[in-house]
Amino acid sequence: MIRKFVFGSPVETEALTDSGSIPGIRGEETEDFPHLAVSAGENQSHVLSCDMAPHDIIYGLGENVRGINKRGWLYQSNCKDDPLHTETRHELYAAHNFFLADGRERFGVFVDAPQTVTFDLGYSDRDRLTVTVDPGGFVLYILEGDSLRQIVKEFRHVIGRSYIPPRWAFGYGQSRWGYECADDIRQVVRRHRDNHVPLDSVYMDIDYMENYKDFTVDSDKFPDFPGFVREMREENIHLVPIIDAGVKIEEGYSVYEEGVKEGYFCKKEDGKEFVGGVWPGRVHFPDMLDEKARSWFGGKYKVLLDQGIDGFWNDMNEPALFYGEDHLDEVFEKLEDYSRQELNIQSFFGMKNLVLGVANRKEDYETFYHRYRGEQIRHDRVHNLFGYYMTRAAGEAFDRLEPDRRILMFSRASYIGMHRYGGVWTGDNCSWWSHILMNLQMLPGLNMCGFLYTGADLGGFGADTTEDLLLRWLELGIFTPLMRNHSAKRTRLQEFYRFGHMEDFRNILGLRYGFLPYLYSEFVKAAVNDDMMFLPLSFVYTEDEEAAGVEDQLMVGESMMIAPVYRQNARGRYVYLPENMKLYRFRSLDCGDSQILPAGHHYVRAELNEVLVFVRPDHMVPMSEGGCCVEDVDMSRLNLLHFVRTEAVYELYHDDGISRKVELETGITRIKVKTDGTVSAEGMLNPECRLR
Ligand code: GLC
After folding, report:
1. Would the pTM count as exceeding 0.70?
2. Is the minimum distance from the CB of 205 to ligand 1 under 6 angstroms?
3. How far is the CA of 428 from the centre of ligand 1 (A)?
4. 408-411 and 311-315: which strand pairing?
5. Long-range contacts: 247-250, Cβ < 8 Å, 24+?
6. Strand order in 128-133's β-sheet?
7. pLDDT on residue 32
8. How far apart are CA 95 and CA 388, in angstroms?
9. Whose CA is closest to atom 10 on ligand 1?
10. By the 8 A CB rule, do 515 and 522 touch?
11. How many CB atoms lie within 10 A of CB 480?
């Protein structure tokens, strides 16, 4: 059951596909808020609160720091470009305002508000949950259901079907901020192919552009770009360029000139375009919320589609601000003052904070406006929609330009609703062991909020990686839909072929292509059924108290549990099994053994080059024999990981991987394994199946 309450005059976010279909009551007029007390906060903010029993658990909030159980910290939805994701952070790039409470009572809450929302989940007071919504009104949805999973499904149903990327986007992607030109990319591809390391895509970071101008390609670095894209496609490689939110201010640059002429950029109170600083230097921000501007910006992706590109990543769309120009002028003036002083303890820190404070400054976001649904709205009131609407610009353009074909799209900033247009990657993490665990812990929360196509920068974006960390991270990454190795300029190079034991990377990555039939099938089923692909154990083993405390294992789809190793030098780990399971231990696609383990706690060995997969009773995981790219994966020969007590049935979904029409009925193959080892398969595919 879902209930809706409206407070103040909220901005329509279009997080829900049809918010009008759920009758709402004005919150102020009723006392009937199940579970939460709502009161007026300071300066027209609103505060929602309730007590928590000692062991109540809070799930959700999508992309955020800390555990699967989010209790005990303060999280803020205020999309922010912050590349240091320490556990002391309150804000990351996304605003995913949906959470679930489980314990004494079980309910879901979605705070639909595009301004800053603060979730104090037992931070100020261990036993109290308090949500503060900044001024501007909001819509509150309260959901109840028989189980946590049921509540998530109901929520996902009203926010609409999650984005499904092309199947090739489940292959391995190699990225690096530093590939400058066609030859750099050719070399990356060559070294993967020569070493038989699978590869499906290479990402093009900002250096491919002419002076960081969106929708341009530097012709010195890429003479004959369409020819290069074709050459790569012949090698089964998809090139995926980055698109940034800010448009460079430069006379003669058509995107800039059109935008100014048509009034498509965000303006200040005085009617002049707001000027910010990002990679290209001075930029204007297209008004992604304005329908016309959005359609115009989206249309620009055609420039690259026409040259053969079929995937993009949208970046810097919080939007990130290195500086706001007006404020910068003030800063320079003040610095001149400082230059005339002898710096003491106050003035030194004053100066330091002045300089450090120029980026992503709250006051700058208060100086420009959007045109949205016939109104002029100040940016800070709708800040969290910017990334969503940038990605929507592209998504709507793809609907027009490519109605029959899926285009890869994922974004850095996001709000619930964007999950219909693209996925997310989790931004600038670091090569830290703790970030492997953080990657794992974010996955269920992201799924709850509709983001199924997701992954982290494998190996870590910032800081220097190490071979063991990269390998351990890959051992988690082979299960995440988006599987991309990406790193920052000036950090240690981290393509797999840079390291001594390349065969380990080849073998582990090979497993991904083995699991592809299962992972793709589970992904699409989750999207179509409004379900999760990555689940906390407690969502499946609902009566098991110990399962509820497990923070470093996940259920992946219906048949599998994973328990990756994320500690330096560990040669194994403790694993909790809520029921008997069959453990498959893989070193490569064709080298693995299996053993049945009883329910309970186990110390399980897992050497650096080993992946553990646990199969549930009466379940199976169909695997392919691998390939060097997704297109090579042969669906006609399947090896079945299986744990059969009475009978296991798996409905394998498969399709052409590219057309937009996705219907489960036509794509299912029913595979059945009986206790005596007989296997049958009927449906779309007619695979030759072998038990493993
Ligand atoms: C941002 C992105 C990162 C990218 C860099 C340069 O930091 O998050 O992925 O490499 O910008 O474009």
Report:
1. yes
2. yes
3. 7
4. parallel
5. 247/213, 247/214, 247/280, 247/283, 247/284, 247/285, 247/286, 248/211, 248/212, 248/213, 248/214, 248/280, 248/281, 248/282, 248/283, 249/275, 249/281, 249/282, 249/283, 249/284, 250/211, 250/213
6. 37-40, 46-51, 128-133, 117-121, 73-77
7. 78
8. 10
9. 177
10. no
11. 24
How far from 315 is each of 282, 391, 484, CA to CA, in Å?
16, 10, 15
Return the ∠ at Cα 277 (arms to 382 and 90), rounded to 5°. 50
Which helix (H) or strand (E) covers residue 50, if one does? strand 46-51
Distance 265 CA to ligand 1 centre (A): 23
Q: Are strands 560-562 and 611-615 parallel, antiparallel or unpaired?
A: antiparallel
| Spans in the chain with pLDDT lower than 50 | none
Query: What token pair was written down for 308?
Result: 């053969």
For ligand 1, whether the C-beta of 610 sits within 6 Å is no
- Give me 291's structure tokens: 């329908």
At 48, is the secondary structure helix, strand, or coil? Answer: strand
**What pLDDT is stored for residue 552 in this prediction?**
98
Query: What pLDDT, on the 0 to 100 scale, is given for residue 20?
Result: 85
3-state SS of 434-474? Answer: HHHHHHHHHHHHHHHCCCCCEECEECCCECCCCHHHHHHHH
Amino acid at 680: S
171 lines ligand 1 (CB under 6 A): no
- Residues 6+ positions from 186 with CB-CB distance below 8 Å: none
Handedness of CA 597, 599, 600, 606 (dihedral sign): positive
Looking from the CA of residue 457, the nearest atom of ligand 1 is 9
What structural domains does the chain harbor?
2-159 (2.60.40.1760), 525-691 (2.60.40.4040)
Could you identify the atom of ligand 1 that is nearest to the CA of residue 489?
10
Alpha-carbon separation of residue 269 from 101, 286, 420, 657 (angstroms): 42, 16, 33, 47
**Is residue 111 within 8 Å of residue 73, measured between CB atoms?**
no
Exposed (0-12), middle (13-18) or buried (19+): which is 184, by Cβ within 10 Å?
A: middle
DSSP 516-530: HHHHHHHHHHHHHTT
Residue 35 and residue 216: Cα distance in Å, rounded?
52
Per-residue pLDDT, 370: 98
Measured in Å, residue 180 CA sits from the centre of ligand 1 at: 14
Q: What's the gap in Å between 316 CA and the centre of ligand 1?
A: 8
Spatial distance between the Cα atoms of 383 and 217, rounded to a whole number of angstroms: 30
Q: How far apart are CA 207 and CA 276, in angstroms?
A: 20
Q: How far apart are CA 130 and CA 55, in angstroms?
A: 17
* Ligand 1 near 427 CB (within 6 A): yes
* Probe target for ligand 1 pocket from 81, 177, 430, with the most ligand atoms within 8 Å of CB: 177
177 Cβ below 6 A of ligand 1: yes
CA of 312 from ligand 1 middle (Å) equals 13
pLDDT at 512: 98
Q: Which helix (H) or strand (E) holds 296?
A: helix 291-299
Report the first-to-last Cα separation within the chain, whole angstroms. 43
Q: What is the chain's length?
A: 692
Alpha-carbon gap, residue 453 to 424, rounded angstroms? 7
Helix (H) or strand (E) holding 204: strand 201-204
360's CB contacts (< 8 A; 6+ apart) are: 80, 81, 82, 318, 320, 321
Instruction: Give the number of other CB atoms < 10 A from CB of residue 143.
Output: 22
- By most ligand atoms within 8 Å of CB, the mutation choice from 207, 315, 424, 482 for ligand 1 is 315
Per residue in 237-251, is it b (16+ CB within 10 Å) or e — as a string? Answer: bbbbbbbbbbbbbbe
From ligand 1's centre to the CA of 592, what distance in Å? 38
Ligand 1 centroid from CA 305, angstroms:
22
